[in-house]
Amino acid sequence: MRSPLRVALLVDPLTLKSRGGRHAPALARELLALGHTVRGFGAPPGVIPRSDIIGQGIGQGIGLTGFEPDVLVAYDSLSPTAFQGARVARSTSASLILVEPGTTREATPLHERLLQGIGERMWGRYVRATAAGVIALDPVAQQHAIDDGFDEGLIHLLSTGVDLERWKPCAGGSALRRFGIRGRVVTHVGPLETSHGLEELIAAFAATIGQRNDWSLVLAGNGSGRRGLRTTAERLGVAARIHWLRDMDRDELPSLLSASTFYVAPALNNAPLIRPVLRALASGLPVLASDTDRYRWAVQDNESGLVVPMEGKAAWEQALTRASTSPKARERWAIGARQWAESTLDWKSIALAFEQMMYEAREKLAAEKAAS
Question: In 3D, which of 345, 228, 339, 222 has the Cα closest to residue 278?
């Protein structure tokens, strides 16, 4: 039986919200459940669950080197914490594993792009030469890692997880009732930006099921494009069929998804994040998604929904018409969506895959030292 590992999770406090903010705490909880000793570095106290290391004779104020990790897991290879992890890995017997979120340039704030540029120039090559493995959270992250020069043999595509107990099919519809929404519902959750293809979606909705009184489009979120999108809906005569939910309680989102008829994820590029789509699939919701690298990987065409060609309004008209007139297909897609989520997005399975990769990195390092 393999001995438990001492795992240090390294996050950059300047980019914690976008890179590792949700992933690191969830991964820490699962690794703790597997019996490993876990400690987070770079996050505010309490954000990343950790072991009671005082009981093991180690003080609360111990630093990264004093923690004596077996494995360092660093988020974003160009972050200062990845550089710190690489230095510790080279000076000790620890293995460095990187987690790449794959945020595109369009979705990355200017200050983060500046930090990435500095990181590439100052320590990018050093970190790449040190890493024992790279976890890419989606196909965009996988391609980024390849483009950045990582050995393809070190890159593993392993999705972020979803809480399958929170996001699941159920009969609840309290969120819809609270907002007075009845009938069949098409839902989108996320930033309301005109650059995300929502104008084309609204136009397609107006030309198809938006003409019927028993269908509604719910757009849950806020963003700089909200006013322009509302203007488009009014001009096309479907303002009464569209509900704009800006102030939803976080706990109402699972109810909203599980009570919807299907989910829509338009996109013009890879900028929109995949997390809302993963939650919709976990909720047993058929998903209609644009044919981008991220969405094509998550949505199996005609198995868990439809992959919509990047042809604008006409393609979305066809997709909405097909989904709205095919109740048996929707039932089949719903089952497929949940099954895919259970096989791919379960945090326990993801943590086991992480664990296997960490042990393999340790064994490879030991073999290299024995041979030298």
Answer: 345
Judged by DSSP in three states, 289 sits in strand
How is residue 193 annotated by DSSP? -
Residue owning tokens 């290391």: 53
- Model pTM? 0.91
Q: Which residues contact 367 (CB under 8 A, 6 or more apart)?
A: none
Report the candidate in 177, 15, 2, 163 with the shortest Cα–Cα distance to residue 103: 15
191 pLDDT exceeds 80?
Answer: yes
Give the span between the Cα atoms of 119 and 78, in whole angstroms.
Answer: 5
Two structure tokens written together for 79:
């972050």
Instruction: Taking residues 223-247, report their average pLDDT.
Output: 92
Helix (H) or strand (E) holding 10: strand 6-10
Helix (H) or strand (E) holding 139: helix 139-147
Same fold, 6-161+346-371 and 174-344: yes
Q: Which burial class, exposed, middle or buried, applies to 37 when counting CB atoms under 10 A from its CB (0-12, 13-18, 19+)? A: buried
CA 176, CA 256: separation in Å to the nearest integer? Answer: 6
Neighbours of 353 (CB within 10 A): 14
pLDDT tens sequence across 5-16:
999 999 987 766
CA separation (Å) from 239 to 212, 218, 243, 256? Answer: 13, 11, 8, 20
Whether the pLDDT of residue 87 is over 70: the answer is yes
Return the structure tokens found at 66: 């004093």
| Residue 269 CB burial class (10 angstroms; 0-12, 13-18, ≥19) | middle
| N- to C-terminal Cα separation, the chain | 26
Between vectors from CA 302 to CA 300 and to CA 305, what angle results, nearest 5°? 70
Q: 188 near 264, Cβ under 8 Å?
A: yes
Q: Which residues of 101-195 form beta strands (DSSP E)? A: 133-136, 155-157, 184-189
| Domain ranges (residues) in the chain | 6-161+346-371, 174-344
Phi–psi pair at 11, nearest 5 degrees? -125, 150
- Residue carrying structure tokens 């047993």: 284
CATH architecture, domain 174-344: 3-Layer(aba) Sandwich (3.40)
User: Look-up: residue for tokens 């004093």?
Assistant: 66
For residue 370, give every residue at least 6 positions away whose Cβ sits within 8 Å of its Cβ, in sequence order, or none: none
Determine the Cα–Cα distance for residues 43 and 25; give it in Å rounded to an integer: 10
